[in-house]
Amino acid sequence: MWKYFLPTKIFAGIEIISENAELLREVGTNAFLVTGKSSAKKCGALDEVLSVLRGLDIPNTVFDEVEENPSFATIEKGGKKLSASGCDFVIAIGGGSPLDAAKAISVIGMNSECDCRDLYTGQNLPAFPIIAIPTTSGTGSEVTPYSILTDGEGTKKGFGMPSTFPYISFLDPRYTVTMPADITVATALDALSHSVEGEVVNNGKNPLVKMLSREATGIIKEFLGKVLMNEDNVSLRGQMQYASTIAGIVIAHTGTTAVHAAGYPLSSFKGVRHGMANALMLIKVFRRIANADPERIASAIEPFEDLDELNAFLKKFGVERVDLRISDEEIEKWSEQT
Ligand code: NAP
Ligand code: FE
Q1: Is the peptide bond before 166 cis (omega within 30 degrees of 0)?
Q2: I want to staple 300 with a disulfide (CB 3.0 to 4.6 A). Which of 137, 193, 199, 325 is the partner?
Q3: If we measure between CA atoms, which residue out of 89, 198, 185, 75 comes closest to residue 136?
Q4: Whole-number average pLDDT of the chain
Q5: Phi and psi at residue 10, to the nearest 5°
Q6: If we measure between CA atoms, which residue out of 134, 102, 132 comes closest to residue 243?
């Protein structure tokens, strides 16, 4: 028995937003834009969205304060601003941090009596409709309901509700061209991690998930090196964007594993990029699972031949060169949390 469910409408291609501008009228009449500090401007996405909104006579408010690993404090600030703005839909532009933040801001903005802790009580709260425009190719946040936030103690925690599935995702690979090499690599390894972790959970049960995982893993295996040699090549960037989105569809069905959970403190407390943190944990966690169920791991990492080949791939992209010092107490505490 299996089910496949994706409520998000996906539109992909060059200039996809201006080509489909009229769709925005269906969503709302006053837009609240959520971005990081500078990349939405640098990559050209923010200006293009503002120009489309002007053409449609849709007013807007911009909240451009989302940091990497977005904090409860930023979400609550953005939520208050949204509540006061009179906006009736949210447009998120950026990497996973602004996209995840926009989901939480959308919920808090609509339910002004709530704070971030209410996102984790298991209740389904309504949210303003969300349009997601990714500028990295990694998290798949554009097609999942998940939002990963950092609480006051620095702990990363995920939530998701039916209302936080983006209503529309616009994928334009031009917006990802400005990513520097280290972000290209870290985000691609995040997508790879979603693809293989998701399939470990799925274990072949949902054939569509299996198909998407194999496709995403194969594309990242084939194209990551090529993208780094041709960083301005929009078509190669489009391959990575596609792989990241379909790996996102995988985890929308499966969630992630201990690999992600174990990586979170490395991002919160040691400044390791999220995708790199996963890559650091991946092989050891998978070898452990393979001890009990080798076929499950062999199938989940296809088309990699085996864990040695996957390990060599990760090493090629610098996973072994991450400089990390962790105390015994930290290991103890984080293992417990994981
Ligand atoms: P990110 O934290 O959104 O951004 C990392 C850096 O990349 C920022 O400095 C950002 O700049 C910059 N950047 C983004 N797009 C760029 C572009 N096109 N050109 C140049 N620089 C660009 O990175 P991310 O890896 O995409 O997201 C990581 C977050 O997503 C983590 O918090 C992680 O836990 C979460 N996550 C969520 C899911 C999910 O299912 N929702 C899955 C995995 C991970 P600005 O700050 O200026 O924007
Ligand atoms: Fe991730």
Answers
A1: no
A2: 199
A3: 185
A4: 97
A5: -110, 130
A6: 134
What average pLDDT does range 202-212 have in this prediction?
98
Q: Is the pLDDT of residue 218 over 90?
A: yes
pTM of the model: 0.97
Best residue among 46, 64, 74, 97 to mutate for probing ligand 1's pocket (most ligand atoms within 8 Å of CB) is 97
- For residue 2, pLDDT over 90 is answered with yes
Class of domain 179-337: mainly alpha
Average pLDDT of the segment spanning 3-25: 97
CA–centroid distance, residue 140 to ligand 2 (Å)? 8
Task: Please identify every residue whose CB atom is under 5 Å from ligand 2, which is an ion.
Answer: 190
What's the CA-to-centroid distance between 156 and ligand 1, angstroms?
Answer: 14
Residue 315 phi, psi (nearest 5):
-60, -40
Buried b (16+ CB within 10 A) or exposed e, 281-293: bbbebbeebbeee
In ligand 1, which atom is closest to the CA atom of 183?
Answer: 7
CATH, domain 9-175, list 1.10.8.420, 3.40.50.300, 3.40.50.1970, 2.60.40.740 = 3.40.50.1970
With CA atoms as reference, report the closest residue to 170 among 3, 315, 27, 332: 27
| Coil, strand or helix at 89 | strand
Distance between CA atoms of residues 149 and 117, nearest Å: 11
Q: Which atom of ligand 1 is nearest to the CA of 68?
A: 2
Ligand 1 site: residues with CB under 6 angstroms?
36-39, 42-43, 68-69, 94-98, 100, 135-136, 138-141, 144, 146-148, 156, 175-176, 178-179, 183, 187, 190, 274-275
Helix (H) or strand (E) holding 65: strand 60-66
Q: Where are the domains of the chain?
A: 9-175, 179-337
**What pLDDT is attached to residue 278?**
97
**Mutation test of ligand 1: which of 150, 164, 183, 249 has the most ligand atoms closer than 8 Å to its C-beta?**
183
